[in-house]
Design brief:
This protein has one helix spanning about 35-45, and strands spanning about 10-15, 20-25, 30. The protein is an alpha+beta fold. The N and C termini lie far apart (about 25 Å).
Length: about 55
């Protein structure tokens, strides 16, 4: 799904777990079990996106 600004956010559920894997439009990735935490992380772009190695 794309937005009018062309930004694409993707959240995948990892089958067999309660884990969500998100990819921001900037390419950074994050995992969380709480969907609210996941959306807050994505919509806070670029805060929280500084370190590529930090995926939680």
């Amino acid at each position: 799904m794309s937005s009018p600004t062309g930004e694409i956010y993707r959240i995948d559920w990892l089958p067999g777990t309660d884990t969500l894997h998100g990819t921001c439009h900037c390419g950074r990735e994050h995992t969380a079990q709480d969907p609210v935490e996941m959306w807050e992380w994505m919509l806070a772009h670029p805060q929280g996106h500084e370190s590529q190695g930090n995926s939680s």
